[in-house]
Design a protein that fits this description.
Radius of gyration: 26 Å
Shape: elongated
Strand content: 5-15%
Largest sheet: 5 strands, parallel
Structural class: alpha/beta
Number of strands: 9
Oligomer: single chain
Number of helices: 18
Order of helices and strands: HHHEHEHEHHHEHEHEEEHEHHHHHHH
Number of domains: 3
CATH class of the largest domain: Alpha Beta
């Protein structure tokens, strides 16, 4: 799924976005950008060589990508900065990261955020079972280890030789963030729905987002290979405000609901079997629903599900009864279904006029 970039919810389509205000920078960016510092080379990096190449590669994989989205991905790679993607649920934020990983033929390491997420689930955890097992082994071989030791001081010195073994990388269980830093051929790191995590967790992310490293007190700092830094995407559904510190470390990309033309292209890319007339009707119907006062308006993912549903039902054209039977595919709350049922004939007639 794929859509527009950096238009705020209350903005008009003809209003310049934050990124569009720098449109004069696009020709040299599309022509290529010389990196500052060590040159990052990841697998299939040629597919990130220009905005146009990225746009073309995304569309080949069913992600209808406009220039703003392609430019954001281009800059994220060449400036070595994460992208914070905001927008309503279901508009293709997560799909953007997954498509980028598919395009580059890299693994997508995903961290799903939730309330209470901490470093033991996001960064690392000690293998306590393995440490306990080694402790038992140490007890059994203690006589051999202390053999030849003279006095308490000498014995303690010998034991200290093994003191740090239990807090080495051999006993470390890497979680998604640490796995991404240690990936040999780089990766795409997706930190999904970061707005569902606590403010404290955002603080844990700052070091990784700015310096591509994490600090572990018992070991030290683990830094990503400078030539294989992960391509980082963070998504947010705007359920709460993201901190300024996190935003400063990221490029910003806003993906709103698409207009009818773009949504029709998306449906055609994802469900090519839908006839053009039916595709126009269903997209118009969805666009009308988004103008209604609903608890949750249908997103692009629902539009695609509905298109597949209509194909399964061998539909050639919308009618009010068919729409009534399939409203549960595009609306997720009963109160919304009841509100639309009251207007279903009017909305269907508007769609049929297209």
């Amino acid at each position: 799924m794929q859509w527009l970039y950096n238009l705020h919810p209350d903005s008009h389509n003809d209003a310049p976005s934050t990124f569009e205000a720098s449109a004069d920078l696009r020709p040299p960016l599309s022509a290529g950008l010389s990196k500052q510092g060590p040159f990052v080379t990841i697998k299939n990096h040629d597919r990130l060589s220009s905005v146009e190449v990225i746009q073309d590669n995304f569309e080949k994989r069913g992600y209808i990508c406009n220039q703003q989205i392609a430019t954001a991905v281009f800059l994220a790679y060449h400036l070595e900065k994460p992208i914070l993607i905001e927008g309503p649920p279901g508009v293709g934020k997560t799909e953007l990261a997954k498509t980028a990983a598919e395009m580059l033929d890299l693994p997508c390491i995903r961290l799903q955020c939730y309330e209470g997420l901490d470093e033991s689930k996001a960064i690392y955890e000690w293998k306590y079972g393995k440490q306990l097992l080694y402790t038992q082994v140490l007890k059994k071989t203690l006589g051999e280890i202390l053999e030849g030791a003279k006095g308490l001081t000498d014995s303690v010195a010998k034991l200290h030789e093994f003191g740090d073994v239990f807090f080495s990388e051999d006993f470390l269980e890497p979680r998604p963030l640490l796995k991404a830093l240690k990936a040999e051929e780089s990766c795409v790191l997706l930190i999904d729905e970061v707005d569902k995590s606590d403010h404290e967790f955002e603080s844990l992310l700052l070091e990784l987002l700015s310096d591509y490293q994490v600090s572990i007190p018992e070991i030290g700092t683990i830094v990503a290979n400078p030539d294989r830094k992960p391509l980082v995407f963070l998504t947010s559904n705007n359920t709460r405000e993201i901190s300024d510190a996190l935003k400063r470390r990221c490029l910003h990309l806003y993906i709103p609901f698409p207009d009818a033309t773009l949504e029709s292209r998306i449906v055609h890319a994802r469900v090519p079997d839908v006839p053009e007339r039916l595709r126009t009707q269903l997209v118009t119907f969805i666009q009308e629903l988004r103008e209604m006062d609903l608890k949750k308006v249908p997103a692009i993912s629902e539009t695609i599900d509905w298109a597949r549903t209509l194909i399964l039902l061998h539909t050639e054209s919308l009618d009010s009864e068919l729409v009534r039977q399939t409203l549960n595919v595009i609306l997720k709350f009963q109160e919304d279904i009841e509100a639309v049922e009251a207007e279903i004939q009017n909305v269907t007639n508007k769609a049929l006029k297209q």
